[in-house]
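Troubleshooting log. The previous structure file for this entry was overwritten by mistake, so regenerating from the original sequence record. Sequence copied from the archived sheet and checked twice against the printout by T.R.
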Amino acid sequence: MLATPRFSVRYGAESKSTVAVQEKEERPARAVAFAAVAASALWAAGCAIAPTDSGKAPVQEMSDARQAIKAARVAGSPHYSPESFQKAQSLMEQAMRSLYQGEYRAAKRAALSARARAIAAREAALAAQRME
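Regenerated output below.
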């Protein structure tokens, strides 16, 4: 809080100029207080409207899809089942775009689909390797 200046007045009586100076000193303090309240309100309103989709981010689903794609890659899916592996990667990219846009439901659906495709691609690669 801003300190208001103290004036010594002779004979205990305040002049009109002293009162005017004190009022001028209070105005900036009010303006600062108002600005702080307004900034807090805008910040709170911005936080309230941040996500465009209700719910939580599909963190677990995204992680599961990444791990499934990694397992499919290690199993040789890019070589043995390239279409399924490419589709899994494409779905994962779609999930990432949806996640960054705040569309959590779409991101979750795409991540679950990517995981399923990656698992299928891994199984196909392992089956093809057994046939050799």
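The longest helix spans residues 16-48. Archived copy saved in two places this time.
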